[in-house]
Design brief:
single chain; alpha/beta; Spore Coat Polysaccharide Biosynthesis Protein SpsA, Chain A; 10 helices; 13 strands; binds 1-O-phosphono-alpha-D-glucopyranose
């Protein structure tokens, strides 16, 4: 039912310099696949095949990844190496890809607002590719899309984090509806531990209703002088229209070296099972 998914990919990836000096951080590979491909695969699993990138300077490799490479394909035609491109070829066939540029970095809220031209007036997914997510059974975005059908309001994925880490996340306050579901009553962007309303942190998966765009337009810049999606969602939450979902699965922050190593090891164990 939700067809569109936005991928904000304009960020500089400063936590990963110098690797990300000339290469988009979303193209960093976990094993043999770039982060952004895992992210698009998750969206497609959730039925979202209209893929919209909010991109920026130096990110051309992402566009090239989701396109055919005639020379390369000609070179390997008829060899065993063709198999390695099967997954990405299928994605390219299943999806449409649109791009718009975020000219200046203005925060996640600003990136999403720039994506309005690609989304229009429909509910849509948002995936931050450096949060690599693996669902138990269904993928995390598919789990959320199913909840959207039930609640018809914005949904944010949450995870419990140690209180000492709240400064890295949007943090929610909410009333429990069931074991994994909360109706959000408040949310704060990157609070100090003593100011955090809970230890439920928002991770990089959202389903947003399109009224978020009007709200973003009138939301003042917030934490770190940036337009924060958390602040716009807080306004929806006041109307009772944001559900937080403690998803069933595993999230690894691949935007830092320790997380990247953890994800590599995790995927190696999971996707390259040892013989014997
Ligand atoms: C963004 C959001 C934050 C959220 C996080 C999830 O922060 O602003 O609320 O918790 O993504 O990854 P960023 O990590 O882009 O600084």
């Amino acid at each position: 039912m939700i067809k569109k998914c936005l991928f904000p990919v304009a960020g500089y990836g400063t936590r990963f310099l110098p690797a990300t000096k000339a290469m988009p951080k979303e193209m960093l590979p976990i094993l043999d696949k770039p982060l952004v491909q895992y992210a698009v695969e998750e969206a497609v699993e959730a039925g979202m095949t209209d893929i919209g990138f909010v991109t920026g300077r130096g990110k051309r490799a992402i566009e090239d990844h989701f396109d055919v490479s005639y020379e390369l394909e000609h070179q390997i035609a008829g060899t065993g190496k063709e198999k390695a491109l099967e997954g990405i070829r299928q994605l390219i066939e299943q999806c449409t890809f649109s791009y718009t540029r975020q000219i200046e970095m203005g925060g996640l809220g600003d990136a999403i607002l720039k994506g309005r031209a690609l989304v229009g007036d429909e509910p849509f997914g948002v995936v931050l590719a450096d949060d690599l997510c693996f669902g138990n059974g269904a993928g995390v975005l598919l789990q959320m899309a199913r909840l959207y059908r039930q609640f018809r309001c914005s949904i944010v994925a949450i995870e419990e984090v140690p209180k000492s880490e709240t400064r890295s996340y949007g943090v929610i306050a909410g009333e429990a509806l069931s074991d994994r579901l909360y109706r959000v009553t408040d949310m704060v962007e990157k609070p100090a531990p003593e100011d955090a309303p809970s230890n439920f942190a928002i991770v990089g998966r959202y389903i947003l209703t399109p009224d978020i765009f009007q709200i973003l337009e009138r939301t003042p810049v917030g934490k770190n002088g940036e337009l924060q999606i958390t602040d716009a969602l807080r306004e929806q939450a006041r109307e009772g229209c944001v559900i937080a979902y403690r998803f069933d699965g595993r999230r690894i922050d691949c935007g830092s070296v320790p997380g990247f190593v953890e994800a590599t090891n995790y995927c190696y164990e999971r996707f390259f099972p040892k013989e014997g």
